[in-house]
Amino acid sequence: MGDRPSDGSSTSLLHSSLLEDAFGSEFTTKTVIHSYKRSFNGFVVDLTEEEAQKIAGMNSVVSVFLNEKKRLHTTKTWDFMGFSQQVERASLESDVIIGILDSGIWPESESFDDRGLGPPPSKWKGSCKVAAAANFTCNNKIIGGKYYRRDGIFDTNDIISPRDNDGHGTHIASIAAGKLVDGASLYGFGLGTARGGVPYARIAVYKVCWSDGCLAADILAAFDDAISDGVDIISISVGGLAASDYFSDPIAIGAFHAMKEGVLTVTSAGNEGPERSSISNVSPWSLSVAASTIDRKFFTKVKLGNSQIYEGTSINTFDLKKKMYPLIYGGDAPNSTTSSGSISSLCLLDSLDRNLVKGKIVLCDAPIIGRGPLFAGAAGMVTREFGANDYAELLALPGSFLDIVDGNKIFQYINTTRSPAATIFKSNEANDTLAPYVVSFSSRGPNPITPDILKPDISAPGVNILAAWSPISPVSSVEGDKRFLKFNMLSGTSMASPHVSAAAAYVKSFHPTWSPSAIKSALMTTATPMSSGINLDSEFAYGSGNLNPTTAVNPGLLYDSEEADYIKFLCGQGYGTRFLQFVTKDNAACSKATNGTVWDLNYPSFALYTSPWKNISQTFNRTVTSVGSPMSVYRAKVTAPAGPLKIQVNPDTLSFTSLGQKLPFVLTIEGKTDKAIVSASLEWDDGVHKVRSPIIVYISIS
Length: 702
Fold this sequence. Notes:
Elements: H1 11-23, E1 32-36, E2 42-45, H2 49-56, E3 69-72, H3 76-80, E4 97-102, E5 142-147, H4 168-177, E6 181-186, E7 189-194, E8 202-207, E9 209-210, E10 213-215, H5 216-229, E11 233-236, E12 238-239, H6 250-260, E13 264-268, E14 287-292, E15 296-304, E16 309-312, E17 325-329, H7 341-344, H8 354-357, E18 361-364, H9 371-375, E19 380-385, E20 399-403, H10 404-416, E21 421-424, E22 428-431, E23 458-461, E24 465-468, E25 487-490, H11 493-510, H12 516-525, H13 539-542, H14 549-552, E26 557-558, H15 563-572, H16 577-584, E27 606-609, E28 616-626, E29 632-639, E30 646-650, E31 653-656, E32 662-671, E33 677-685, E34 690-698
Parallel strand pairs: 4-8, 4-11, 5-8, 11-13, 13-14, 14-23, 17-18, 18-19, 19-20, 27-34
Antiparallel strand pairs: 1-2, 3-10, 3-12, 6-7, 9-10, 15-16, 15-21, 15-22, 17-21, 24-25, 26-28, 28-32, 29-31, 29-33, 30-32, 33-34
Helix pairs in contact: 4-11, 5-6, 11-12
């Protein structure tokens, strides 16, 4: 997916010509579904696998990849991070535009009220071109609204406009830039003032996700438009099940072209944790975000007919008034026409016998949100959880997730009692004193594409986040759930990503000329360190640490990079000159002089993948730019565990005489290790600023 033609030639004609070159007279049977021509060069076409391979082998083609579907990676948080309503704000905040690539937006939400905002900034080149019948209107808060579905295939539940019938996109947008709304809550839970991180920033909506997912072709089309429209930050909480090669991944491709135009792309890490190397968005020119907890947790008690009480987790808004209901094990109530007891024990949709389950509380062996029991007419559900139980799900009916020990006790109670019964209490809200820590579902590193680039980059709140919602979507997102609200509480790296998008916009409002990598560096090097004692995957869970927006505005030093640095990195990764020239449409060339190793990319973190007891002698070349005080002296402090690894910095003192001055240093790791992970850090300190970078040495990717 290369740059657009620089000679003014028509991209549509070029694409048709390419098909003619590939298929000769048969090219007339191939129709270009969509041409990308505003910010980069590419097109969508239906091909067989054999035809795709033929085109992929052509000299003028950078890459060919499937139009596969990506998935959505599903407010107290700002105060929890020390980012209060009274924080200093720049007058340019209302000039910052965040592009949200998601499921759309609910424009009537109070979070997107435009009172107090003037017209869009003059740099804005986008539009809100929606048919009158679509009943969607932009304002001075939501300044752009577009939707994409290149194959033209919609579900009956889809609204063919930028309007959000799912809720996810509305939630994301309000976390990032929602206005202040007093009295927001989920049936009283989380009651307070809901607000985004940059409430005066503008929002441009690019709807790429529908009821069946988010197509790669649509994601690229949205990137193409967003870059050309003039957004400052792109926030996309979408990803695949696994990481892809950089130029086979539409998000990495779009983010690369965004970077070239000075736009930072913030992505969610994914929800496939805690497995190692489960992170899906890993390009070094984007910012990947893990999900951490806040000091709010929910627990839900279950009382049995024998008066025993067990405590689990969920967000249960239902009140059964202490009424006892018959209790049954899902495995004892199989729908004989569709499932067996081993399947019905999981309580999946259509697996339960409605005649046996209706009006009863069901014990299930899988952590489901309740679609199966709800459709079978159950009064409630209890699950015995085999995995981590560190976050609360909002269920479609009364329910609680118990750990395996307590769940087994309930199972035993059912099997030893003539008429087992139970009730489920409404959830209680409590303080989580261990927060912040990275939640189990958050995807982990190491980076499966480039192991020596640490991913994720940073963590941010992504658990039990209250934000705006689409009032036509049930709060549990389960059809049949009759609860429809204007605010909802969700968990996911999807919720973490817009916190960082907002922080990036906040930094941008103070420093409008900073590059995407400069903003990224500021966020990473000022992040609050996290404990590897709580997060056993250490930096592979949380990256540089937990987001701290307040300090990011004044980081002291920056690790800055530009397109040329990423080209050198890609050369070192084995991408050839011809390939890169098609991507960049300039004279980018790979040679011994320009090939850059991964360790020389000016990244704000340090990672080294090695083998057990292998002798290590690895140098990392870095350059930092002074943005703190004109006259300053920074001293290096390396914190590392005792052992055979030795980490040194040369020089260990950097003396700056002016703002914008750049000084290089070399970090060297020597020795050997047999430990799975060795965590260390480098901190540059001038007495005012503490510029911290994580260092990680490890011996296993999986």
